[in-house]
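Here we describe the complex-level prediction in full. Unlike the single-chain runs in Section 2.1, the three entities below were treated as one system.
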Amino acid sequence: MREEWCKGCNLCLEICPRGVFITSSEISKKGFKTIKVGNEDACIGCSLCEYLCPDLVITVEEEQIAGKD
Amino acid sequence: MPERIEKSLLPPKRYFMQGNIACAEGALAAGCRFYAGYPITPSSEIMEHMARRLPEVNGVFIQMEDEIASISACIGASWAGVKSMTATSGPGFSLMLEGIGYALMTETPCVVVDVQRQGPATGQATRPGQGDIMQARWGASGDYRNIALSPWSVQEFYDLTINAFNLSEMFRVPVILLADEVVAHLKESITIKPEVLIYDRYKDKNKPPFGGELVPPMPAFGEGEALLVTGSTHNEWGVRKVLDPEVQERLNIRICEKIEMNKKEIIKIETYFADDCDFLLIAFGITARSAYYAVKLLREEDKKVGLLRLITIWPFPEEEIKEIAKPAKRVLVCEMNRGQITNEVQRVLCDKEVCGLFKTKGEAIYPQEILRRIKPL
Amino acid sequence: MSRTLYKYLREEVFPSPFCPGCGHGIIMGAILRAIDELQLDYQKMVFVSGIGCAAWIPSPHFKADTLHTLHGRAIAYATGVKLARPELKVVVISGDGDLAAIGGNHLIHAARRNIPLTVLCGNNSIYGMTGGQVSPTTPKDAFTETTPSGNQENPFDLCSLVKACGAEFVCRWTVFHIKPLIKAIIRGLTTEGFSFIDIVSPCPTQFGRRNRLPSLYHNLMDLKERGVSYEKAKGLKKEELKGKIIIGEYD
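The structure predicted for the assembly as a whole is:
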């Protein structure tokens, strides 16, 4: 995730079918409460988050076991 | 400044040509290869001629849906690297002002011909006027300086169109040709010379396209420059800076200064019998033809009258007027409007008696009218 | 992969000025994914936009030739660029107000002429940038700053309009239907004549907030529910189509 670009719109958090994301306690340089990966192992690689993130923050990568960058 | 000599498009000789046609041929000779326009009397012949001629010279012609689209397409074509032009009259010019503002802000070369008619609004479509002087100068929103030229003959309509393209490229500014319906529809003999001097916009990949020097280089789309062209306030690389006061001031002052500081190079005027006159006439366009005739008649009667003809209307030839009007005790400005140039002359010659001969009748000013006005004095 | 798209962007202007949850950010991603899949020559593309939030999608974000013009005039400028240099790929990205209100005339004429342009309409049914005024695509009865008691006008079906003018490829997708949207953009970019894609894109800040759709998630779920395919819609009556969004290609 390119966290510096995240604006905390919560879409990834709400649309993920497996609850991978959580709200971070970090505040970005622009003053947004960002989102971060909470449970990487739950990811099934559907990539809804990557395609629907309005800020191009997320890249979903497949590894031997479902992993995320 | 990259300049070159090109052969004239038409075989060099004398022609009997209509003003509007001469304008179109001048544009083609200057390298214009894109025309987007909208029909409006009395300028439509320019567009019609371009429709016939542009395909012959591998250019592009399109009749757009309105004047706003016309000036927009011309600016787009200019950024694609092609010299472009449009022609209209007063009401169409009002519509184009939005686009002219954009061309001023983005420093886009293009030529806009305004064949003036009686206004305001629809007015008298087939009758001449000279009432768009101030509209040409101040019509777009905000502050800027631009260039406007006024031809008085068909020959000059041809020559000044070439001049307009060159000035436009030299200073990256839209140039307005303020013609009138009479010059546009007159048919006169003109001479087309074998060679044309052409200026092109200067290019330099290493320098910023919107600042850094008085007239920056101008790349085109498709050259791999990732150009950022925007009508918002921008820095020298085209990056939008709508909250920065320094950037706005720097940009705004520069687009004014690039014309202000080059006035001597831009301004053209002509004088007739003016060296020893004590009564000076000032006129432009078709009115100057009548004024010239009036002056000749008066000189035959040993009256010390002279004529100053404005070829460049904007930037206003202030220094030139001050210099030439020195011997004169009185000045009479003749114009087919109600005082647009007279006000300017009064401002410049604030210590002289300056009057105006106004005519907004849809007729050219006759030499007799000028004589009648001067004789009693 | 989002990461592979960064090369198309001017990274120094990110995070983008779009509101958190703006649908136009999704459109930006979709366009770049389409360009990337086609492996188009980015240096021979020109992106022309007008004024408004959607017009900010290419400018200043795309590291390409961008022409940010006046309100409503993008298509007219684009026509000039394309005719002067036909070898350049010219894409117009602008909003519903820009393209259909002030720019309506230019839209219908360019479609009629079938000029080879790809026009992407970031349609959020509102004038977002100026604070949330009604637009020609705002649904009836919706609340906006200039329709405080509900919109009394009927909106355009932009696809019907543009198709009737003679455009070659016309379709509508929403940003929720992201995969078909990317495919449609690819089709639009490779159409020979005039292509128009009406991209329904939520504005949670100006539209959503006033119409009980406060977050991007709510808006996307709403789009998912209201979408009905063009083929299916042909067989439905006017009352059945009320509130629905017709998606797919118009013919």
